[in-house]
């Protein structure tokens, strides 16, 4: 057939026919790939190898600051307050005069007791001289033995009267000194609860001022009795060891900042509060700048010991079953994924300590858990290391 030029309308028809055939082939190929397998390849899941290690544990407890010493000031004699001798809120020293009670009646009692002592001493001196004279002449028979015994007895009675008078004078002096109400301890004194002119008594229950020494302070923390029991059981079983020396305690203040001076643990109370089921843990802190005021709320971090050969897993790797129990996903020895229930211990930063259900050297899946679906091929990858297994795995 001779070469002829193809008309334009025939060329256009052939082009349309070819395009339609290509589109049909592309659709058929895509459907076959979808049915034949997973186009994206196996899903990577990251795992870590569990290794036993000694872990220093600490716990956070809450509590309040208490002054190292607190003294409520009360009068020890009755009377009217004449003057307040200190500035409210100032620091006072032990023995410093704080109030002056009207001393006139006590001064009079002291003067009377002193005069009575003088009279008793004069009487005793006369009785003693007479007793000495009778003692010398009784042997000569100038006086009878009965008369001498009476004189000696009178001498002894006169000396006893002197002792009584001297004690009464001392009592009067003490009461006179008590008219100055003095600070029993050094520290910061609060506001005065009485004013000049107020009548106070030695037996009143209400204080007239309060002094607090908080150059160093106690921080009384609360810990549940269940936590304390668990710690002691862990120590007795050898899972947890505790340093015998005084362990440091750090404080977090109400604004979230860390207190500059570490403290030390003093003791744990032996009585459980029946209302809260908690025990008191007391720590002692230096307070040179007066930052810790009695009554403020604080949080404390203190060491509970060292967990021996503990197994740590990230908290994000721990799942929960339908019943709420903890479980981990592991890559087992056959290269397949395994769901295993575990018993968790204490938290350590962003990790959990696994108390039961896990062994050193096992592979725990820590990344990609949300991507796992039944039937999808998986590729476990060691976090921070080479690919563990390039074979596709199925979830079981």
Question: Secondary structure elements and their pairing?
Answer:
Elements: H1 8-36, E1 43-49, E2 52-73, E3 79-84, E4 91-92, E5 97-101, H2 104-137, H3 145-177, E6 180-182, E7 187-189, E8 199-200, E9 209-224, H4 225-237, E10 240-241, E11 248-252, E12 263-268, E13 278-286, E14 297-314, E15 319-320, E16 326-331, E17 337-341, E18 343-348, E19 351-356, E20 363-367, E21 378-382
Parallel strand pairs: 1-21
Antiparallel strand pairs: 1-20, 2-9, 2-14, 3-5, 3-8, 4-7, 5-6, 7-9, 9-13, 10-14, 11-12, 11-14, 12-13, 14-19, 15-16, 16-17, 16-20, 18-19
Helix pairs in contact: 2-3
Describe the 3D structure.
This protein is α+β, with helices and mostly antiparallel strands and 396 residues long. It folds into four domains: 86 residues, conserved putative lor/sdh protein from methanococcus maripaludis s2 fold; 107 residues, Beta Barrel (Elongation Factor Tu (Ef-tu), domain 3), CATH 2.40.30; 56 residues, RNA polymerase II/Efflux pump adaptor protein, barrel-sandwich hybrid domain (OB fold (Dihydrolipoamide Acetyltransferase, E2P)); 63 residues, Helix Hairpins (Orthogonal Bundle), CATH 1.10.287.470. Helix content is 28%, strand content 36%. The chain has four helices and 21 strands. The strands form three sheets. Strands 1, 15, 16, 17, 20 and 21 form a six-stranded mixed β-sheet that branches. Strands 2-9-13-12-11-14 form a six-stranded antiparallel beta barrel. A hairpin with a 5-residue loop joins strand 16 and strand 17. Helix 2 runs antiparallel to helix 3. The longest helix is centred in the N-terminal third of the chain and has 34 residues. The N terminus and C terminus are likely disordered.
């Amino acid at each position: 057939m001779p070469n002829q030029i193809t008309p334009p309308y025939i060329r256009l028809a052939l082009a349309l026919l070819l395009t339609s055939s290509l589109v049909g082939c592309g659709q058929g190929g895509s459907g076959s790939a979808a049915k034949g397998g997973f186009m994206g390849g196996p899903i990577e899941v990251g795992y870590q190898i569990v290794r036993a290690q000694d872990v220093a544990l600490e716990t956070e407890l809450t509590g309040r600051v208490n002054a190292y010493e607190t003294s409520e000031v009360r009068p020890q004699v009755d009377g009217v307050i004449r003057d307040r001798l200190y500035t409210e809120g100032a620091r006072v020293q032990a023995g410093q005069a704080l109030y002056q009670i009207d001393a006139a009646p006590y001064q009079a009692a002291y003067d009377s007791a002193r005069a009575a002592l003088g009279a008793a001493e004069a009487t005793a001196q006369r009785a003693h001289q007479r007793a000495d004279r009778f003692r010398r002449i009784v042997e000569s028979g100038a006086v009878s033995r009965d008369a001498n015994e009476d004189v000696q007895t009178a001498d002894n009675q006169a000396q006893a009267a002197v002792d009584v008078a001297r004690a009464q004078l001392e009592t009067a002096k003490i009461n006179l000194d008590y008219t100055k109400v003095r600070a029993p301890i050094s520290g910061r004194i609060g506001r005065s609860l009485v004013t000049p002119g107020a009548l106070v008594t030695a037996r009143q229950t209400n204080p007239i001022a309060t002094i607090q020494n908080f150059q160093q302070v106690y921080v009384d923390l609360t810990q549940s009795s269940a936590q304390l029991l668990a710690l002691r059981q862990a120590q007795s079983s050898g899972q947890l060891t505790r340093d015998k020396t005084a362990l440091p305690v750090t404080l977090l203040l109400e604004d979230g900042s860390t207190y500059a001076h570490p403290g030390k643990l003093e003791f744990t109370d032996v009585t459980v509060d029946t209302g809260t089921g908690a025990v008191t843990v007391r720590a002692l802190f230096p307070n040179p700048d007066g930052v810790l005021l009695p009554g403020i709320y604080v949080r404390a971090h203190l060491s509970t010991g060292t967990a021996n050969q503990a197994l740590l897993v990230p908290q994000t790797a721990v799942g929960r079953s339908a019943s709420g129990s903890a479980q981990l996903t592991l890559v087992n020895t056959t290269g397949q994924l395994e769901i295993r229930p575990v018993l968790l211990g204490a938290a350590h930063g962003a990790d959990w300590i696994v108390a039961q259900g896990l062994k050193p050297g096992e592979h725990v899946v820590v990344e990609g858990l949300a991507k796992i679906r039944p039937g999808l091929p998986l590729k476990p990858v060691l976090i921070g290391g080479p690919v563990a297994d390039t074979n596709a795995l199925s979830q079981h």
